[in-house]
Design goal:
By secondary structure, the chain is an all-alpha fold. The chain has one domain. The protein contains two helices and no strands. Helix 1 runs antiparallel to helix 2.
Length: 57
């Protein structure tokens, strides 16, 4: 589960960078990357939820 949390943090850092580029500079490609990263984060968060529930048992 520790690895999953690290992956989520890395993906979020990439998302934050690209989202900031889109907002501040209007970079359309960065917006596309940010949206792609948000989908990946969503999938990893679902995995985390499952792992967390298993660990709680």
């Amino acid at each position: 589960m520790k690895e999953l949390v690290e992956k989520i943090q890395e993906q979020y850092a990439a998302f934050a960078t690209d989202a900031a580029l889109q907002v501040e500079k209007g970079n359309k490609a960065a917006g596309t990357r940010a949206r792609k990263a948000s989908l990946a984060i969503e999938k990893m968060m679902k995995e985390f939820r499952k792992a967390s529930l298993e660990a709680a048992k």
